[in-house]
Amino acid sequence: LPHAAVKRQISQLRHSYDFIIAGGGTTGLTVADRLTEAFPEKSVLLVEYGEIGYAAGIFDPPQTVWGESRASASSFNFQSLPNPDVKNKTALVFAGKVVGGSSAVNGMFFDRGSRFDYDAWTQAGSPEFDSSEDKWNWNGIFPYFKKSVTFTEPSADVAQKYGYTWNMSAFGGSTPIYSSLPPFLWADHPIARDTWKDMGIRVANECAGGDKEGLCWVPISQHPVTARRSHAGLGHYAAVNDTRPNYDLLVKHQVTRVLYPNGTTSGPPLVEIRSLDDDHLFNVTTKAEVIISAGALHTPAILQRSGIGPASFLSTAGIPVVLDLPGVGSNLQDHSGPGVSWNYTKPNNFSPLPSDMLNPIFAADAAAGFDETPARGPYTLAMSNSAIYISLPNITIDYMKIINRIYRMVDDGSAASYLPADYNSDPTLIAGYKHQLSIIADLLKNPKAPSIESPFATGTSVRAFLLHPLSRGTVRLNLENHLLQPILDYRTASNPVDFDIHLAHVKYLRRMIGTDTMQKYGTLEVGPGPSVQSDEALINYVKDNMTFSFMHPCCTAAMMPREKGGVVGPDLKVHGADGLMVVDMSIMPLLPSSHLSATAYAVGEKAADMIIKQWSKPFNGHELRATLRPA
Ligand SMILES: Cc1cc2nc3c(=O)[nH]c(=O)nc-3n(C[C@H](O)[C@H](O)[C@H](O)COP(=O)(O)OP(=O)(O)OC[C@H]3O[C@@H](n4cnc5c(N)ncnc54)[C@H](O)[C@@H]3O)c2cc1C
């Protein structure tokens, strides 16, 4: 990445900024790019905790261990709280800490959710937000999915070799965030596809256009020629920074708080920033908006440090309450799930397979192929480019038993007993949760809305992503030091219906072992294993085998009405706070049926459009001015 216009200390900053964005990640960079493009006369300061640097692809060479992710060098990296509902296990929390954010460290699997997921966001805000101009349903966000990425079609021979299908009506953008289908698949890939077809799964032609139930090809967020990772730091900063004198990027600085003068919430607020080199604290004022884009883990931390959050928690933390918003850091969701694994007992001659990477000649050729133009070979595949997404009615004939259990817990009020204790019986959080559960129950009933995702590329195991968790976790400041990493409590499967759904998913996945395709190779189940049959034993297996986080934390500053525990409105402005917005994966009320980066770019694009529309009007005749002030 070129380093022009990167600022590293306060003395390099200009004296006035119109917009300040906290967090140079997937969404923050998208917004900064669009604002500096639309408003050449207005200045934008983007403050990023991490450094600017090369972000290797998830599996780029050279590697000491094939498949090892190198994400840790540029990531926040800490342990969650132990989970009493899943044998007191903890999980590794990972999030990008680099210019590009999590798009620069992620698995590069680049799918979108189903249309029903985004329609559910609108339902979460209904009826209170019904009259808003800002529509976050599928029709309202689809144009921004298209705008946010340049999808390049595979060559005809690659498409024919692997049977790739796609539909360009889902794409059409020219933003330099790239996605493509790779010119390489492992030799056992067709087994999985044939197995799913044996299971009667619909083979989808294109899954990025909103209709996503079935067997899908998924693009990879990489350049179509070099196969190098494409991320927000490249597409929304390096590609534009030398043409934007109004765009300043301050790296290695932490946004600590936003500060309103005199205990009010009329704004826009000051932004307090800390140098990570020397701990120096300083304030910057802004005229237009402060936009918090620090990701689902750190956005609530900034708000809580600012006195914007659950009043009861803030007083425990000794922070004066500026705005009691119980939803800040609540409503944490993530995809979780166990896996199913098997062995082939009959000889097969699949070649090549990842085990061939242990052969020095094969490995050297793979590395050389990655440096060719165009790149070829195993390294162009990244993590995977296929998955099944199946609805609950297509998974189990007993789906209504599960769904009725959800409706019952909403009706009889018992749903609230599964919420975190520190929700302190807050009526708004409980109302919002019940509203969400009804929406999820409706989603799960829909035969076209996926309940499970199971990605695959190669090998002898698949995992079962629970796409619509009912359990809710929390992100809270570390009471010992508010500036350290927040305390994350996933509370995975704290709502017992999540176990019912995991159980249905595992039973469904283990059925694949019995298909004709699998049996051709003498496939035997290894996990859960033939001896694990009763529901009780299976739940025990799920607990032992559970991945708490597929690295999709979200929803901790949800776009919902304040009276339902929401933090932002459909204009993404924080309820009750002037000049303060949240634009990142925190704003989703509910998880979509997808990994999150494509949605993060689309949210960034849509938010930027809304901000541009608002600030294209004259600024009330005032001169645009902001000043640096000592703290
Ligand atoms: C290891 C991993 C694998 C993943 N795999 C996939 C995948 O294969 N496909 C997919 O689509 N999604 C994947 N995801 C999820 C996806 O990448 C993220 O959900 C998405 O990029 C989040 O975007 P965001 O803008 O909300 O936050 P981020 O992109 O994480 O950006 C937040 C930024 O804010 C900065 N920041 C934090 N606190 C502060 C502060 N106080 N002051 C200043 N800056 C701050 C951070 O350093 C970061 O750069 C993965 C995520 C991870 C971590």
From TrEMBL:
<feature type="binding site">
    <location>
        <position position="98"/>
    </location>
    <ligand>
        <name>FAD</name>
    </ligand>
</feature>
<keyword id="KW-0285">Flavoprotein</keyword>
<dbReference type="InterPro" id="IPR012132">
    <property type="entry name" value="GMC_OxRdtase"/>
</dbReference>
<dbReference type="InterPro" id="IPR007867">
    <property type="entry name" value="GMC_OxRtase_C"/>
</dbReference>
<dbReference type="Pfam" id="PF00732">
    <property type="entry name" value="GMC_oxred_N"/>
</dbReference>
<dbReference type="GO" id="GO:0050660">
    <property type="term" value="F:flavin adenine dinucleotide binding"/>
</dbReference>
<feature type="active site" description="Proton acceptor">
    <location>
        <position position="595"/>
    </location>
</feature>
<dbReference type="GO" id="GO:0016614">
    <property type="term" value="F:oxidoreductase activity, acting on CH-OH group of donors"/>
</dbReference>
<feature type="active site" description="Proton donor">
    <location>
        <position position="552"/>
    </location>
</feature>
<keyword id="KW-0732">Signal</keyword>
<dbReference type="GO" id="GO:0044550">
    <property type="term" value="P:secondary metabolite biosynthetic process"/>
</dbReference>
<feature type="domain" description="Glucose-methanol-choline oxidoreductase N-terminal">
    <location>
        <begin position="295"/>
        <end position="309"/>
    </location>
</feature>
<dbReference type="InterPro" id="IPR036188">
    <property type="entry name" value="FAD/NAD-bd_sf"/>
</dbReference>
<comment type="similarity">
    <text>Belongs to the GMC oxidoreductase family.</text>
</comment>
<feature type="domain" description="Glucose-methanol-choline oxidoreductase N-terminal">
    <location>
        <begin position="96"/>
        <end position="119"/>
    </location>
</feature>
<feature type="binding site">
    <location>
        <position position="255"/>
    </location>
    <ligand>
        <name>FAD</name>
    </ligand>
</feature>
<dbReference type="InterPro" id="IPR000172">
    <property type="entry name" value="GMC_OxRdtase_N"/>
</dbReference>
<keyword id="KW-0274">FAD</keyword>
<feature type="binding site">
    <location>
        <begin position="26"/>
        <end position="27"/>
    </location>
    <ligand>
        <name>FAD</name>
    </ligand>
</feature>
<dbReference type="Pfam" id="PF05199">
    <property type="entry name" value="GMC_oxred_C"/>
</dbReference>
<protein>
    <submittedName>
        <fullName>GMC oxidoreductase</fullName>
    </submittedName>
</protein>
